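From: lab user (bench 3)
To: helpdesk
Subject: output format question, protein + calcium ion

Hello, I'm new to running complex predictions and I'm not sure whether the block I got back is the full result or only part of it. Here's what I submitted:
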Amino acid sequence: MPHILILEDEPSIAESLVFVLQAESFSTHWESLASNALAYIKTQPVDLIIMDVGLPDMTGFEACKQLRKFSEVPVIFLTARGDELDRVIGLEIGADDYVVKPFSPREIAARVKAILKRMRPVTATNELMPANNKPQEFLINTEHKTIHYFQQLLQLTRFEFCLLQTLLEQPGRVFSRDQLLAAVGVAADAGYERSIDGHIKTLRAKLRVINAEKDPIKTQRGFGYSYQPEAHQCR
Ligand code: CA
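Helpdesk reply: Thanks, we reran it on our side. This is the complete output you should expect:
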């Protein structure tokens, strides 16, 4: 069930979004302050954010800029103003879509679905493509189910491939063990949660053989794991 964060200070708008998204089987969380939303994203995995531009503590643009320092989660902006400048700024700082108020909540739900659908573009292509535009780091070939790390082919089990692909596709996102199991195709209630730790350990060992200095898979204590691309590690 995709988890949608709604960042909107007008309760009536937030409530209508919660209503329509829950009716479409999404889980939702609502924040009215950008600072609270940013704190929330650091502790909870979020699949998509619907973000108002006019917020009490900072603009949605500023919030998105801060968000992009640690997360690539898709963002849909909501704004009262329909001018082209807002639209351009929004897309330049990394928004995925843009909706002008007043809007129909059903329209938003349709856009959410469309974005989540194209979130997994890597699985649709057969080309060797860089993860996170970092060709020197990881290259995923989805047809051959191979991943190169610093130009060297990783010898991975199917489980390890799925695990690493899931982490690479959403840099910065923290996955719980249950979410990683689900991504690999194992039922989360099967009691295998801790087996993820073992697989991550062997995965890290394989990466270390190729490059001993990097440690791209991060342990998020008490929660799970994430892939932190090089650029993010420097900040
Ligand atoms: Ca507002």
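A quick orientation on your result: The first strand starts at residue 3 and ends at 7. Let us know if anything else is unclear.
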